[in-house]
Amino acid sequence: MKLVKVTIHELVMRMKTPFTTGLGTMQDKRFLVIEATDESGVVGWGEGVAFEEPSYTEETFKTSLHLLEDFLIPALLGKELKHPDDVYEIFRPIRRNNMAKASIEGAVWDIYAQLTNQSLASAVGGVREKIEVGISIGLQPTDEQLIQTIQQFLDEGYKRIKVKIKPGKDIELIRTIRQAFPVIPLMADANSAYTLDDIDRLKELDAFNLMMIEQPLAHDDLIDHALLQKQIKTPVCLDESITSLEDTRKAVQLGSCRVINIKIARVGGISEAKRIHDYCMEHNIPVWCGGMLEAGIGRAQNVALTSLANFIMPGDTAASERYWHEDIIQPEVTVTDGYITVPKSKGLGYNVNREALNKYSVSKKTYRL
Length: 369
Ligand SMILES: O=C(O)CCC(=O)c1ccccc1C(=O)O
Ligand SMILES: [Mg+2]
Known about the structure:
Elements: E1 3-21, E2 24-38, E3 43-48, H1 61-76, H2 85-91, H3 98-115, H4 120-124, E4 130-132, E5 135-137, H5 143-155, E6 161-164, H6 171-180, E7 186-189, H7 199-204, E8 213-214, H8 223-231, E9 236-238, H9 245-254, E10 259-262, H10 270-282, E11 287-289, H11 296-306, H12 320-323, E12 329-330, E13 339-341, E14 351-352, H13 354-360, E15 361-368
Helix pairs in contact: 1-3, 9-10
The structure holds 2-succinylbenzoate and magnesium ion.
Magnesium ion binds near residues 191, 214 and 261.
Cofactor: a divalent metal cation
Protein name: o-succinylbenzoate synthase
Family: Belongs to the mandelate racemase/muconate lactonizing enzyme family. MenC type 2 subfamily.
């Protein structure tokens, strides 16, 4: 494989409903679509999922543009690639900026799958025909609305409910949910809203039989999470803190968590996501696939990755229609009885809908060898 042309499309798509966490609210999603062309003319697609504000990680869609234009695309154009794993090595001298790296690495994986006549799921080593999915629900204005929203997604078949918590909207909130839904698979994501000073409060959550609590403490912490995990029964799941296989090794050795949320973009691509998956499998740490409110291309990659053997907990990869009036892929990702069927066709398994892509595109720029 050799990339000869890369086009960056900048899109803005309005979500059906705003998504609120302790970090902020998002409704209009600005993101990047990467269209990469190989020397044989095969086109691969990637998605740049960094948000407009550096609140979840330090990256933004603008830093992604800068990295792609000035470093990542120049480093890849014209390079002979034997396997998509080569991309991670080529990018190694460039520190962090994982979402920017993943955006173009995903396009190389798509090209590789097409050139080797297989689905992306099969190219990454997936073993499942269908994947079990859950849903992540943002903070709601009232408890009534939250209960109603949970009921709606349970009715749609979602297998696990994740709610956002923050100080002051935690114990009572979870108690209210448990009163309405005593036995559903339920978990809470704090997006780093707590410190060890809140340990008594976090211990109170042990009463509610949560599947796990996601990223309670600082976004870059492993040590305090290990201290916390020793004192609470609820399994700790790390999201923000895991940016690489190295972070994973340290977290597992320290006992910082019992579960890991893998997001392709957060760890710099599909290759590193796979290595984290494999390490966790060897160490009996279950993983699940997190989300970045992706449009169709990122969503398709999540479906493929989740077909790996150790994705044994439902992830956040919900149906396209949960987020978008119209997605940029055909067919859209659909959920039936809480499952997504992993596509078997060549490459991503979904076609990019050029008409939709152009409709939501606000600018584009092409780089050639
Ligand atoms: O539905 C999704 O794509 C995931 C939603 C979600 O929880 C989330 C959305 C934006 C930023 C961070 C997170 C998170 O997993 O912490
Ligand atoms: Mg999270």
